[in-house]
Amino acid sequence: MPLLKEFKEFALRGNVLDLAVGVIIGGAFGGIVQSMIKDVIMPVVTMAGNVDFSNRFIALGTSAREAIEANPNLGLEEARKFGSVLAYGSFFTVLLNFIILAFCIFIVIKLFNTARRRFEKEQAPPPPAGPSNEEKLLTEIRDLLAKRG
Q: Taking 70 as the threshold, does the pLDDT of residue 1 lie above it?
């Protein structure tokens, strides 16, 4: 039973809930960024000469080379069926997506931090705390001593 009790305490901590919410929101945000990359940015990047990076590859096997010679418009997935291919275009696309994703996350975090700092500046500083009971007592003692002497 102690193991079950420890697990319950662990699972019900605020940190675990915060982590779960972060993972869910991160997944949703990842979908938004991936769509922005795929549907908005990559079409602009590929406009230069109508290049589709994902289908760029070099045939490594003899049968794959022969298949490409027979059909020069063979796509990456079809070429893989004939043998080994070096899919540098696919790698480049994934790398470019990562760089764009990292940049977008950087911008979002930078905007969030800027907004947080601005919000913290706009909040009025809390009023100074009054003297503590100890300070009040010491003040009274000082005043009494001043009256005596």
A: no
